[in-house]
What we know:
- There is one protein chain.
- This protein is α+β, with helices and mostly antiparallel strands.
- It contains one helix and four strands.
- It has a four-stranded antiparallel sheet with strand order 1-2-3-4, with helices on one face.
- It is rod-shaped.
- It starts with a helix and ends with a strand.
Amino acid sequence: MLDGLVSFSIIILAAGFLLPLYTxxxxxxxxxxxxxxxxxxxxxxLHAFQYMGEPLFTGEYGxxxxxxRYHLKEDAYCVDYPAAGxxxxxxxxxxPPR
Length: 98
């Protein structure tokens, strides 16, 4: 009886340590996918600007309820995108010559 209780306690304790680690990995994966989406659109727009002469998109782009904001800041093209929680991350890349 005591062996079963100790084994059960060890399993519960291990689950208690592993669950936060697992949820942290899920949140990190979501952050990476948001960053990947934001940066891929940013570099697509810079490529179209530099090689095809298209204007840079400025404004907001929504995807699955998340808002990506593209804007110019001095001589850089920037994107603000959602991260874990209510945090917003930003990435800027210098605008290339045409």
